[in-house]
Design a protein that fits this description.
Elements: H1 2-19, H2 26-56, H3 65-68, H4 81-86, H5 93-107, H6 129-137, H7 144-148, H8 151-167, H9 178-188, E1 193-197, H10 204-215, E2 223-227, H11 232-243, E3 249-250, E4 269-274, H12 304-314, E5 315-326, H13 334-347, E6 350-355, E7 368-374, E8 382-387, E9 393-394, E10 400-401, H14 404-418, E11 430-434, H15 435-440, H16 448-451, H17 463-493
Length: 503
């Protein structure tokens, strides 16, 4: 029931927010709305602690250290949600919100240059900011109870998904579905060490990594977060996404292109999780002599193998990574084919390839695959292929989601294979191929080529059983035919009808 109510809240919030959007573009509007949601979160959290301190009666409710000691952002009086709502009908409400966000950044250095401060800009004239404030007022997202239920996280992810759906950004650059991220996390298990995402978007990979650690009673302080994002707006969203969960990471001091301005040059990550933009054109001329392109320079019109090599260069000695690439990367020829051959042959890095079903992304229907690269493979000179094309359920006419059982099936298959724990090839689903077999297939990594086609139910029936079934069916048809024949004969014996009677 609680889940149902939350979905109703999400849907209502989105419908109401969209109604108020006016003539503002989706790309501008998303930051406006998500900025206010974030502001509501830190205000809720502050106000709850504020009331606790008032009840204690020691007069410490305005002491900043009482809040920061519990990882609660300090909110000055004129930046608190209550104050903003009181002034929601003022004609200068945009300026009031901007001033509030400037004050919050000043009091909380971790939020410096992160929060949106464009509510008083000309583009906001068509947005009813007062109504947006009223919309979020009655929903608690920053209280202890709300944080425990991850209500803000749910709403935030829902809005990110809806914005991605409406923006129709190429390749799901902006938002990676949680079920896909969770599949990657469950496979490589980033439990302890440095986690890196070179195209971190809004930070979804980090959030799922955190959840994985929490579910396994791990210590979040054992995880170091490193990321980079090219889009300034998305970079800010990622910073906010981490902040609402009290997560601290190095996303660089600013947004920057990972290829031309690597902000983590000396990083060696234990885990890498990424969904880089598919089939991206890139300016390879600027980085042609870079040591990252150990296996060859990716073509100018497609950066898939540039991303792959960049990530490989960032892996520690025992590092493991999971990244999403378009299926074309599995069989592409030319320069890409040569790079793929060298990755397979020279360093035996490809641990597993998972073909995912279509319609997982809000923005594109193109099928994709998860590459698991491992510098310390347990199964040497072998690669596991998993064909997960048939998994998932269509939740709308255009969108598919993987269930927890689907994710478990994929991850457990990989772990059984990796640990040599009762692993068996399953026709149509999984197959462990040797490097020699891959070579005979021209280094093509398409899972369907190796796993084969699942036997149909009919093929599992013996010849004798088939004949018995056919004979029985024929007997029934002959019997029905005989009955019909007898009825026709009876009809012919009936006296003819006088035509004069039918007038």
């Amino acid at each position: 029931m609680e889940e149902e109510n939350l979905k109703k809240i999400e849907s209502k919030l989105w419908a109401s927010a969209e109604k108020m959007r006016g003539a503002v573009s989706v790309s501008d509007y998303k930051f406006i709305v998500l900025g206010l949601i974030f502001l509501k979160y830190i205000s809720d959290s502050f106000e709850e602690k504020y009331k606790e301190l008032v009840d204690e009666g020691d007069g410490l409710e305005e002491e900043r250290d009482c809040y920061t000691a519990e990882n609660i952002f300090y909110v000055p009086k004129t930046a608190r949600w209550e104050y903003l709502v009181e002034h929601s009908k003022d004609p200068n409400i945009g300026e009031i919100i901007d001033d509030a966000l400037i004050l919050i950044e000043k009091e909380n250095t971790s939020l410096k240059n992160v929060l949106p401060k464009d509510y008083n800009s000309p583009t906001m004239r068509n947005v009813n900011l007062g109504e947006l404030l009223d919309l979020f007022t009655n929903i608690k997202v920053g209280t202890k109870e709300a944080i425990q239920k991850d209500i803000l996280g749910r709403i935030y992810e829902y809005f990110l998904g809806q914005f991605a759906k409406n923006e129709l950004q190429k390749g799901g650059e902006f938002y990676t579905p949680a079920c896909l991220v969770r599949t990657m996390v469950e496979c490589i298990e980033p439990f302890k060490g440095k986690v890196y995402d070179p195209a971190c978007g809004s930070g979804g990979m980090f959030i799922q990594s955190m959840k994985f650690v929490e579910e396994h009673q791990g210590n979040l302080y054992n995880i170091g977060i490193y990321g980079q994002e090219k889009n300034p707006t998305t970079w800010r969203l990622a910073k906010m996404n981490l902040a609402i969960r009290s997560m601290y990471g190095d996303l660089g001091k600013y947004a920057a292109d990972t290829f031309t301005e690597d902000l983590h040059k000396d990083l060696k990550a234990d885990f890498i999780l990424a969904n880089p933009p598919f089939n991206l054109e890139w300016d390879r001329d600027k980085v042609e002599g870079d040591p990252r392109w150990k296996y060859g320079l990716a073509p100018k019109n497609n950066a898939n193998y540039a991303w792959l090599q960049h990530m490989i260069s960032k892996l520690s000695q025992n590092g493991k990574m999971a990244c999403i690439l378009a299926n074309g990367s599995l069989s592409a020829g030319g320069q890409e084919g040569e790079i793929r051959k060298r990755i397979i042959e020279d360093n035996d890095l490809v641990d597993c390839i998972i073909a995912m079903p279509t319609n997982l992304f809000y923005t594109v229907t193109v099928p994709c695959s998860i590459w698991i690269i491992n510098r310390n493979k347990k199964q040497k000179q072998k690669t596991l292929f998993i064909n997960a094309n048939s998994l998932g359920t269509m939740v709308t006419r255009r969108l598919r989601e993987l269930s927890e059982d689907d994710i478990k099936k994929i991850s457990e298959t990989y772990h059984c294979y990796q640990n040599n724990n009762n692993y068996e090839n399953i026709k149509g689903f999984c197959y462990s191929a040797t490097t020699k077999e891959i070579k005979t297939n021209d280094y093509v990594l398409t899972p369907g080529r190796y796993v084969g086609v699942e036997d149909s139910k009919e093929e599992t029936i013996s010849f004798e059983e088939k004949m018995k079934s056919i004979t029985s069916e024929l007997s029934k048809q002959f019997e029905e035919s005989h009955k019909l024949e007898e009825e026709i004969k009876k009809a012919h014996k009936c006296p003819q009808i006088n035509k004069n009677m039918i007038k």
